[in-house]
Q: What sequence folds into this?
């Protein structure tokens, strides 16, 4: 037969079990949505990274052209660096013609939901070059300024370095994939 102390003990035990169960239920009720939210964010981040990689694959031909034409332009300017006059109007440079094209191509990326700091900076360099080139071209021939040329050269050097960095970073992703697949 149960004594009074046994009944009190059983009631206290039941209360403790219920309290522990309630705390556990609250923990589960909080942790499951947090975990599901974490999984959703992780999946969205992976999808965004895949989208970013797809965009870079599409952008690679433009990046290679930017690198090649900016390199040629900088070499051409370097060959005439002793000339104190503005030589941009004498240059037959595909790079100068393509600055607005590159600017528009990068403009699409900047307005996408994909963020890459280097590509945004590259877009800025081309937006700036396009503006300086526009100012330069709108000047009468006798007022063309070497200052515009120097600005374009300065930002082209930055653009070339950024382009080189972006290409190497993204080529590395694909070269790593090729190496991993060759091990299989």
A:
């Amino acid at each position: 037969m149960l004594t009074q102390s046994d009944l009190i003990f059983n009631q206290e035990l039941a209360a403790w079990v219920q309290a522990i169960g309630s705390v556990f239920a609250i923990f589960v009720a909080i942790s499951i949505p947090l975990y599901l939210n974490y999984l959703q964010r992780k999946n969205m981040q992976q999808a965004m990274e895949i989208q970013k990689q797809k965009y870079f694959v599409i952008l690679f031909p433009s990046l290679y052209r930017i690198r090649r034409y900016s390199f040629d332009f900088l070499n051409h300017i370097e060959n005439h660096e002793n000339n104190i006059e503005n030589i941009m109007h004498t240059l037959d440079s595909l790079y100068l013609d393509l600055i607005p094209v590159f600017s528009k191509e990068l403009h699409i990326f900047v307005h996408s939901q994909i963020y890459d700091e280097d590509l945004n900076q590259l877009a800025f360099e081309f937006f700036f070059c396009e503006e300086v080139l526009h100012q330069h071209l709108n000047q009468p021939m006798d007022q063309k300024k070497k200052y515009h040329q120097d600005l374009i050269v300065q930002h082209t050097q930055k653009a070339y370095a950024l382009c080189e960095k972006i290409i190497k970073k993204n080529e590395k992703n694909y070269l790593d994939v090729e190496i991993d697949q060759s091990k299989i």
